[in-house]
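Batch manifest line 645
LIGAND: adenosine-5'-triphosphate
JOB: complex structure
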Amino acid sequence: MSVPAIPASSSDENAEAQAAGRAKHASVFWGLLPFVWPQNRPDLRVRVVLAFSMLVFAKLVTVSVPIFYKDATDRLTAASNGETVSTGMGLAFGVAMLILAYGTGRVLTMVLTQVRDVIFTEVGQNAVRHLNNRTFQHLHRLSLRFHLERRTGGLSRVIERATRGIELIIRMGILNVVPTALELALVSGILFYYFDWRYVLIVVATVVVYMWYTFAASERRIAIRREMNDSDTDANTKAIDSLLNFETVKYFGNEEAEARRFDASIARYEKAAIKTFRSLGLLNSGQAVIFTVGMTSCMLLAARGVMVGTQTIGEFVMVNALMIQLYMPLNFMGMVYREIKQGLVDLEAMFALLEEHPEITDKPGAQPLEVTQGNIRFENVCFSYEHDRRILKDLSFEVPAGKMVAIVGPSGAGKSTISRILFRFYDIQSGRVTIDGQDIRDVTQKSLRSAIGVVPQDTVLFNDTVLYNIRYGRFEATDEEVFAAAKLAQIDAFIRSLPQGYRTMVGERGLKLSGGEKQRVAIARTILKGPPILILDEATSALDSHTEREIQDALDSVAKDRTTLVIAHRLSTIVHADNILVLEKGKLVEQGTHGELIARNGLYASLWARQREAERAREELAQALQEAVRSGALTPEDVAIEGAS
Ligand code: ATP
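JOB STATUS: finished
ARTIFACT:
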């Protein structure tokens, strides 16, 4: 009989998880250090040293304040008991000086702390900026697959929270943990000097128990905070997703369903937030009890000392003042611990992003692509996005330099995939893709991508001006070059007709422009880029047939002398292509010129026949509508609505 394996106890697992968590936090903490002590910024390092000197000085002043207080009390007590030897004036002067010193000490403590914080702000902000920059650049290095799988709302939230985390760790950790430890050491020294070891023992024991309690309670709270963060991110992503899909929500009248979905995430957040605050109350109360027990014990001891004559009243007062002063940073320490841990949790997410390896990388020593003619070859290419579903199957074809090759085929055949592979958004599993004999995996991605211009299927624009969006093709281009490109793309006249002309804002993702206008902007910026190789992915899909014809001329002139790969649905746009590849389920089933393929009477011929049929039907409908308008059965407005739908 086999004995079932004994599962690890949950406390073992907890301990392991906690140890792993601590190791991760430590690595995040060390990872942050180079940003706080930047090698290339001696000025910032000077600031760090200055800030630390300030904090040591401030603490020395802080602990001397209760001593002034003690001396003043003792002098006044002696005077009231008639034990003093000084004259009235001398006594008043001495006490006044002590009280002044007390006041000055308190002011100095505050001022020095503020100055220290201001000095350190620059270091902190510099760290925030560099880490943010590094993450942003890294996000752009990651693959398309990563971005398709991650949600943008979630990503921006991670960065936002990490920014707060860095600030907290720097400000609270470095500028509070060190001074508090220093203060504890100084207070212990003073207690030992004026009193005895029992006081030191009570204070140290109080601080140890206080810390232990704070850390333990905070650990519990961090798990709750994590849940709060997760539900916050979730609610935020849902809201962004829902608003981005504003039109779709309206098409289906699903506002209520969206609100319910959003509310479900917010409800999770609400529950977690209440739990967080409840645990905060518990933590604060516990801290107050522990510290008060310690402080009253010291005061009882001191009171007894006063009664038996070993301690002065001033010392009784001083012990209270010292403890209350220590309580302030300690009380803050509880928050510091919580916030640092929280900051570390937030930063952990950002560091995890930074550790994400880009799927597509340049080979070590990769050379720039040298385009001599622009000849593209796919040799026995097999590719799948996911393991169990092959998209391209042993695909081989050539796009000779300067020629136009079109890829056609049913939806989902893998046409756009070919352009993504050529642009190296994904690497293939077997076979080879070359440009002028150079495997695209051996050259730098930057050079490869700068050699290829893409007019994509769905054009998304930046929420900026039309001018900015066209100039995106080549930032150095002059205004005249931008206008010339827009003219070629047949969009110049339209832009100039807008009240703000080229300065018109296009709205988020370019939504203020029609599909055809967006596409022409995309064509203009590709013209401006002026690459030797061109990929037109359904480039004229969003245009009506009149505009399409106009733009087709523009595209033809752009494509002239350039190697061009056209991914087309409307076969009428590619009848003049030098070669047409017919793709079906990732396989090349036919190729040839339009005439050859029609004569062959295969898949292409049937696609062509079907499209002609559809076009004829459209033409007949248009004629019928015109007829109806002429006979008065329909108004031109009715026809416009019909046409739109
Ligand atoms: P269409 O003419 O409709 O644009 P297409 O021939 O261009 O189609 P592709 O976009 O190349 O088709 O897609 C080929 C297949 O790969 C499709 O079945 C699609 O579902 C799948 N596919 C596309 N992108 C991904 C992805 N990122 N992850 C997984 N599968 C994908």
